[in-house]
């Protein structure tokens, strides 16, 4: 088993293209071609976690938070980041992180929070833009279904809960091959008219290479005519945070007490109780304060997240209840997501969840 085999199973669900511009997800230490003896899963990579990996005899650590966030100019052990990286390198331990890309996908961090709270009818709170492309190609009638099916198999044509979505219209294509061509239909040097089908379908940007490969492999023409357009539509399947509804309205204090227990928070910092009942809930794992206005505009009764600053609580203005359960507390179950992904793909492989509590915040 290679490092690339393990991390590919994660990136199938959470492609690196979905990480935020400031992020540093991916393989941070080690080689994709290294053999893997076992996997240790954690939220944060710190020295004690690397020591745990050494003790367990595993050489790949998968974390949610990247240990290297900014460029390192020296490796002299002057801080915990440098010491952790040095210790990993000295013991041939690879470190991989899936951070905001795992935050952004269904089945990821915010989706797991929704599972725990019990939310239905879930939607992405802040969908990404500039992620969808439209492919237009022209295929001889007899080969249209083969090409269409190959594009669907490569991941094109998904819109919400629907798949195999496309549009087709019949027309006539014209072409004339030069001396060095070998036309599939017609004769070189002669103008040829062919009954063709124009096929349109959409796909997310991380599948562009796969989609183009499928098209070129299955299209019968020597030279394939196709166009790819960037769409302004939001991709409602990807983005930060989620919003959904409780099965039944709850008293706000009961709701706050319930999430405190679910996430093991030492305390829940919250704004004034401005709602009589809680029904619509917005969530975001980690630091979600930047999504507050989005949660308000989507008519959420409460926004569950972490790392709100003092003055950001004023921004609720009585229109929503902010419930800050803590950064670590909101993301701790990320470890379970990693575990489920890897063990489902490699059921007989040694995979451990770290026993180290890396939460740097303590309460009296």
Description:
A divalent metal cation 2 binds at residue 64. Keywords: Metal-binding. Belongs to the GTP cyclohydrolase I type 2/NIF3 family. The strands form 3 sheets. Strands 5-10-12-13-14-11 form a 6-stranded mixed β-sheet. The two termini are 45 Å apart. The longest helix has 12 residues, at 252-263. It folds into 3 domains: 3-103 and 333-353, NIF3 (NGG1p interacting factor 3)-like (Udp-n-acetylmuramoylalanyl-d-glutamate--2,6- Diaminopimelate Ligase, Chain: A, domain 1, 3-Layer(aba) Sandwich), CATH 3.40.1390; 116-127 and 239-330, Udp-n-acetylmuramoylalanyl-d-glutamate--2,6- Diaminopimelate Ligase, Chain: A, domain 1 (3-Layer(aba) Sandwich); 130-233, Alpha-Beta Plaits (2-Layer Sandwich), CATH 3.30.70. The mean pLDDT is 96. α6 (144-153) runs antiparallel to α7 (208-218). The relative contact order is 0.16. With 364 residues, it is α/β, with parallel strands linked by helices. The chain is built from 11 helices and 15 strands. The chain is globular.
Helix content: 25-40%
| CATH-assigned fold name of the largest domain | Udp-n-acetylmuramoylalanyl-d-glutamate--2,6- Diaminopimelate Ligase, Chain: A, domain 1
As residue ranges, the low-confidence spans are none
Corresponding CATH superfamily of the largest domain: NIF3 (NGG1p interacting factor 3)-like
Return the structural class: alpha/beta
Query: Average pLDDT across residues?
Result: 96
- The CATH architecture of the largest domain would be 3-Layer(aba) Sandwich
Work out the number of β strands: 15
Q: What is the count of distinct domains?
A: 3
What's the level 1 CATH class of the largest domain? Answer: Alpha Beta
Q: Treating each run of at least 4 consecutive H or I residues as one helix, how many helices?
A: 11
Strand arrangement, major sheet: 5-10-12-13-14-11
What's the shape?
globular
